[in-house]
TrEMBL record:
SUPFAM superfamilies: Metallo-hydrolase/oxidoreductase (SSF56281). Residues 32-226 form the Metallo-beta-lactamase domain. It comes from the Bacteria. Pfam families: ODP (PF19583). This is MBL fold metallo-hydrolase. PANTHER family: ANAEROBIC NITRIC OXIDE REDUCTASE FLAVORUBREDOXIN. It comes from Anaerobaca lacustris.
Length: 268
């Protein structure tokens, strides 16, 4: 895969569909970039895909759900791989209201403000009823933007973890269990060192407490923006994540490495 690509939606749970895409990361593999449709009584979209795939995302999403039925958008944070179709959706899904945070609204206002009458502010620890179930906002144990909120869904017992628990991969799959465990561990640890480099400076007891907070939820499925759907794997993934503070810090390619990459590309 040499460019960002949408993939076919698939089922993560009876009431949850994944709207997946992938993004190639030179030298490191591919990274899933997922949005999710949660078929609550008041349907919820979680994130809106990558900016580069806006048209493809809107088409794929429209095949999954009638945009007129969408009531909520849970925006985990304002990074370009999560807000790709945000304003298109505000235009084309008239009942949609954006669950987000004060900080995310502020960041969006720096380049494309959100209409305040379409916003619903929810902080970590607070809950929102969406018809038949309750969504409780959670600050995930790792994140790359301070406005990040994931959540726990009481209906599906799913933990939506935003960027946390993502993994670099070599090939697209639909379920994290399809990835060989050592490969998954390696890809998760690598991605987490890239995405949350501050993990190397964390107080271990506090980080363990954050991991235990997720463990205590006993999520049946973990839905990261950057991992195929992971059923019955929460303990395993959290054990992998616990290893990240002691892992080798990520250092990106420098200029000589970039020139070597470009020369390699040109030689093909
Ligand atoms: Fe992010
Ligand atoms: Fe992300």
């Amino acid at each position: 895969m040499d460019k960002p690509t949408m993939f076919q939606p698939y089922q993560a749970a009876p009431d949850i569909e994944v709207v997946p895409s992938y993004f190639p990361v030179p030298g490191l593999g591919i990274l899933p970039i997922n949005a999710f449709v949660l078929r609550a009584a008041e349907p919820v979209l979680v994130d809106t895909g990558q900016v580069l795939l806006c048209d493809e995302f809107m088409k794929t999403l429209s095949d999954v759900i009638d945009l007129a039925d969408l009531r909520w958008l849970w925006l985990t944070h304002a990074d370009p791989d999560h807000i790709g179709s945000l304003h298109r959706l505000l235009d084309e899904a008239p009942r949609l209201r954006v669950i987000t945070t004060f900080l995310a609204v502020g960041k969006m206002s720096l380049f494309r403000p959100l209409p305040m009458d379409r916003v619903y502010l929810l902080n970590p620890g607070q809950s929102l009823r969406v018809g038949d179930r309750t969504l409780t906002a959670i600050r995930p144990p790792t994140y790359d933007a301070p406005e990040t909120t994931g959540f726990y869904d009481s209906g599906s017992c799913a933990f939506f973890s935003a960027d946390c628990l993502g993994a670099l991969m070599s090939d697209p799959v639909e379920y994290a269990a399809e990835i060989e465990p050592a490969h998954l561990r390696q890809g998760l640890v690598k991605w987490m060192t890239v995405d949350s480099p501050w993990l190397h400076m964390t107080d271990n007891a506090r980080f363990t407490a954050a991991l235990n907070h997720v463990r205590e939820l006993k999520p049946k499925v973990v839905l990261s923006a950057h991992l195929p759907a992971a059923q019955g794997m929460a303990e395993t993934l959290l054990d992998y994540l616990a290893a990240v503070p002691a892992a080798e810090p990520f250092v990106g390619p420098d200029q000589p490495a970039l020139e070597a990459m470009l020369a390699g590309t040109a030689a093909k």
